[in-house]
Structure formats: structure tokens, C-alpha cells
């Protein structure tokens, strides 16, 4: 039995944030029905890379789609048509959770907004994920991850300092705003589901903005500004509050060191044969090391650069000094810890191919994550879902197909 067995999720979302949240719920055992546009489907079916077949041609779904949509059933329904809206309304009446990330107000045109559906299904937990939220001066605007990274202040603290080579604000290397909002959405949905089932008996509307989520997730760095009034420095791979906490050049590559306390610093100095540093008042405590970072770091650099990465990592590991290499993805998925934790999995598709998947990191003791379905083809489950959930007969499905209200997998 899985954690969310028996829970039905209607996923009207596209691209990253909503699909990421819905995939997490599917991993936990919910039955997730993904509603897509006939003919085109989710936009991310057309973004990212595809695998190469034996003839060298592209096959299967894109990397972006595959990363966000395992465990779901795809139903292709035209929401712009009244008959399509009626089908989705019927599915919502039989669902526990609905996730959507349309622009604020868009679904009201179709009678699929929270107020309309709550009147039909008061137990529905309805999660709206949007760029700027359902209210406010920006609520009508579209938005994508780079905007939330820039507007939230994240880019102002990411990258090298002005004046240094390559200095200036930088975007984080993945869609961190979307993924962060997806995590917040899962937490909020599960909290609302418990409130419904234990306290109120009714669902509620969740209004989640990507900009809000990104501002909140900056957490302790934003708090540094709030308590001091000073903009946190942009320090590349270094930390403004902990030292040493950064990357260092070695003889044959780079290593990252993250010293979290004074004992670890003393152990690091012992490995590097710098016995006087832990007793120096400038470096004896973390606040002092952070304050005197510009004097301390060059001393450490001179000692570290003489060692190969592997040898220094082994010595630091033995001494209890937190450190690690800067891995590329080939090294990530070949790492013995990652392999032991089975973070790379393979799933069979309906077409008979095996596809790679980055595993869910949660390890339940009693209700393990289930990898039941590969990311679906567009409309792969249209007939199956409409028969099973709505009880439609073959003639009704054929009529809907003739009118181009639905699309089934070829």
C-alpha cells in the first residue's frame, strides 16, 4: 500500500511547477490524471532533448517532459470547447485534488475556476500555481523562471563579485523557481488534504505564486538583509557567513570544502599541516574566520593546491572534514553513494523502450515510492480514464473523437 492510495489528482498544469508537484503525488501513490491539449499536449513535450533510436533519429518524449510526468495517465481534452469543459468538470467532481497553473482568472472563462468547481465538489483541494499569485498588480502577467530568479533577489547573491573575472549576477543552472514552487505546492496540498479529512470535511483553495515561493526560499540570506539593512555580498562559491565554505583549486582539479564548526577547521588544518591557524585569534571561531576570510583563504589555497583531489578528499574524509568533488553528471550517476541509493532508475514505456528516471529521494519505511508508469504519451489513457472514471461507452467516446473534443493515443 502506498501513502496516497485512493487519492485522485486532476492535473491541469503544464511546463514545470505544477507537473513537478503532481509527479510527487503520483510517486506517493495518488492516481494522477493529466489533462492535455489535443494535438500538442504539454508545452514541455516540445522542449529539451530526445533519445536517439537505432537509426539515429529522435524517439520518445523530451527530457523535460520525462522529468516531470512519470506515474500519470494522459487524457487529451479540448478545454476551449464546452463539451471538453464538461468532461473536465465531471473529472473534477470525482477528484480529491486539482492542480492548475494557468494565468490568474483564465479558468473562470471555462467554468473551471475554484469557485465553480467547489460548488460541485466541496471536498476538492484546488491548488493554483501562478507566476505572481491570484491578486496584486502583477497577477495578470505571465512569468517564467528567469524572471523569478531575478525579481526575488536570488540573482543578486549568485555569481562572482563585480570587478572579478566573470563578475555580475548569475542565474542558477536549473529552473529553481519552478521546482521550489512545486515543493511548496506538495506541502500545501497535503496540509489541506489532512485538514479536509480530519478537521473540516471540505477542501480549500491554495494560491501559490512562484515569485513568493522564490523569495521565501532565500530564507537565511534574505534574513541577513532584514536584520542588517545591508545587501548580502555576491561571493561566487564562497559563503558570507561561514569560512572555509567554498571551492579550492587542487593539483588536478577542484574540491569543495564546507567546514561547519571549529573542530572541523582544526582537523582541516592538521591535514594541511597548518598547525598554527586554529589558535590564531583571527581564525579561532567561525564568526572570526568569516570576518577575516580574505586573509585566511589565501593561506588555505596555497596549502590545498599542492594536493591531488582524490588524495586530499580521502585525507579530509578520514579526518571528518566535509568535502566533495565538483562532479559532472557522468560522475554523479557513477558515484557509489548515488548508485547505492538507486537514484538512477529505468522504466519501461508502452512502446517497449526503457527510459532513465532520476528517482524520488524520499525513502518511506512502510509505504515505499512506487514507479508504476513511465511518462505517458499524449492521450495514451484518454479512453481508459473516461471509461473507468466517467463510465463513458464506446459510442460516446467515438462521438467525442469525431467532434475533436478528445484525442486518444494513436
Automatic annotation (TrEMBL):
Region Disordered, residue ranges: 43-64
Alphabetized UniProt keyword annotations: Transferase
GO molecular function: CoA-transferase activity
Listed Pfam families: CoA_transf_3
Key word Ribosomal protein present: no
Keyword Endoplasmic reticulum attributed: no
Biased composition (Basic and acidic residues): 43-55
InterPro entries the UniProt entry points to: CoA-transferase_III_domain, CoA-Trfase_fam_III, CoA-Trfase_III_dom3_sf, CoA-Trfase_III_dom_1_sf
Protein name: Crotonobetainyl-CoA:carnitine CoA-transferase CaiB-like acyl-CoA transferase
Amino acid at each position: 500500500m502506498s501513502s496516497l492510495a485512493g487519492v485522485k489528482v486532476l492535473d491541469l498544469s503544464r511546463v514545470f511547477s505544477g507537473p513537478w508537484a503532481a509527479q510527487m503525488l503520483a510517486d506517493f501513490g495518488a492516481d494522477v490524471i493529466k489533462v492535455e491539449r489535443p494535438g500538442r499536449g504539454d508545452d514541455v513535450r516540445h522542449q529539451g532533448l530526445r533519445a536517439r533510436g537505432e537509426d539515429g533519429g529522435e524517439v520518445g518524449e523530451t527530457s523535460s517532459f520525462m522529468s516531470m510526468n512519470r506515474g500519470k495517465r494522459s487524457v487529451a481534452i479540448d478545454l476551449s470547447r464546452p463539451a471538453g469543459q464538461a468532461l473536465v468538470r465531471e473529472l473534477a467532481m470525482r477528484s480529491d485534488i486539482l492542480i492548475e497553473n494557468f494565468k490568474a482568472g483564465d479558468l473562470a472563462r471555462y467554468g473551471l475556476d475554484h469557485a465553480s468547481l467547489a460548488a460541485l465538489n466541496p471536498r476538492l483541494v484546488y491548488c493554483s500555481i501562478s507566476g505572481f499569485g491570484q491578486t496584486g498588480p502583477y497577477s495578470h502577467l505571465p512569468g517564467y523562471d528567469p524572471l523569478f530568479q531575478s525579481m526575488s533577489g536570488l540573482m543578486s547573491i549568485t555569481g562572482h563579485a563585480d570587478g572579478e573575472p566573470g563578475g555580475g549576477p548569475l542565474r542558477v543552472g536549473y529552473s529553481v523557481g519552478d521546482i521550489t514552487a512545486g515543493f511548496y505546492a506538495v506541502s500545501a496540498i497535503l496540509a489541506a488534504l489532512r485538514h479536509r479529512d480530519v478537521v473540516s470535511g471540505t477542501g480549500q483553495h491554495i494560491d501559490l505564486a512562484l515569485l513568493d515561493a522564490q523569495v521565501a526560499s532565500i530564507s537565511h540570506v534574505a534574513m541577513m538583509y532584514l536584520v542588517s539593512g545591508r545587501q548580502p555580498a555576491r561571493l561566487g562559491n564562497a559563503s558570507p557567513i561561514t569560512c572555509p565554505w567554498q571551492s579550492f583549486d587542487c593539483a588536478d582539479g577542484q574540491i569543495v570544502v564546507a567546514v561547519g564548526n571549529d573542530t572541523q577547521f582544526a582537523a582541516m588544518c592538521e591535514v594541511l599541516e597548518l598547525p598554527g591557524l586554529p589558535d590564531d585569534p583571527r581564525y579561532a571561531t567561525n564568526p572570526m574566520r568569516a570576518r577575516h576570510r580574505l586573509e585566511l583563504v589565501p593561506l588555505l589555497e596555497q596549502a590545498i593546491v599542492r594536493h591531488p583531489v582524490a588524495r586530499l578528499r580521502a585525507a579530509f574524509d578520514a579526518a571528518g572534514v566535509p568535502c566533495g568533488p565538483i562532479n559532472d553528471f557522468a560522475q554523479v550517476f557513477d558515484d557509489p553513494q548515488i548508485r547505492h541509493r538507486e537514484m538512477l532508475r529505468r522504466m519501461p514505456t508502452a512502446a517497449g523502450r526503457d527510459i532513465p528516471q532520476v528517482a524520488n529521494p524520499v525513502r518511506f519505511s512502510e509505504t515505499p515510492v512506487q514507479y508504476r508508469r513511465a511518462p505517458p504519451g499524449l492521450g495514451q489513457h484518454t479512453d481508459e480514464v473516461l471509461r473507468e472514471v466517467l463510465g463513458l461507452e464506446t459510442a460516446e467516446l467515438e462521438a467525442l473523437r469525431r467532434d475533436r473534443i478528445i484525442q486518444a493515443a494513436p
